[in-house]
Design a protein that fits this description.
Layout lengths: L3 H33 L5 E16 L5 E13 L2 E5 L12 H10 L5 E7 L2 E6 L8 H31 L1
Antiparallel strand pairs: 1-2, 1-4, 2-3, 4-5
Helix pairs in contact: 1-3
Length: 164
């Protein structure tokens, strides 16, 4: 492979860094959006539908579920219907995890609804990030560090192969 091997590793490392940086940028946006909800006004709402729904299967063939919660709330005399538990995060898992969320929000229960004062149709039941956000953040940061290490190592190899 001679000089091509180090160049391929360098290119792969650069690709990994760009990809991880893109994911981290998206996660930063999700974090800002989810935490902005903390500053939104609240109103009382009612859960109108709560169910654990099969949404697919993972690579091993295990069924994946999500909790689908619909709630109604009123702002300035207008009725809205929301479905987001949190903004920016879409959590799936096994059936038991989805059913635990459904148990927290059974049909008919009164809930606190955070709504966007500029667009009251945008709402959530919980502020902040939920689910595996921090795990994904750690994995993306690790991928970024591995990519940077790969760039440094490969760049050194490229320079050495050009000299020799």
């Amino acid at each position: 492979m001679g000089k091509i091997g180090p160049l391929l590793r360098l290119g792969g490392s650069i690709f990994l860094v760009v990809l991880m940086a893109k994911f981290l940028s998206g996660m930063a946006h999700t974090y800002r959006l989810a935490n902005e909800v903390r500053r939104w006004p609240t109103t009382q709402g009612t859960v109108v539908k709560a169910e654990a729904v099969k949404v697919g299967s993972d690579e091993e063939g295990n069924d994946e579920y999500e909790a689908r919660i619909r709630y109604r709330y009123e702002v300035n005399g207008q009725t809205y219907e929301g479905h987001a538990i949190t903004l920016g995060a879409h959590v799936t898992g096994d059936r038991r995890s989805a059913e635990r969320i459904v148990a927290v929000y059974p049909e008919g229960v009164l809930v606190r609804v955070y709504y966007n004062p500029r667009n009251p149709a945008e709402a959530a039941l919980k502020p902040g990030v939920q689910g595996d956000f921090w795990l994904f953040l750690a994995l993306m940061a690790a991928g970024l560090l591995i990519g940077v290490g790969g760039i440094l190592y490969s760049a050194k190899e490229v320079v050495q192969s050009l000299r020799g």
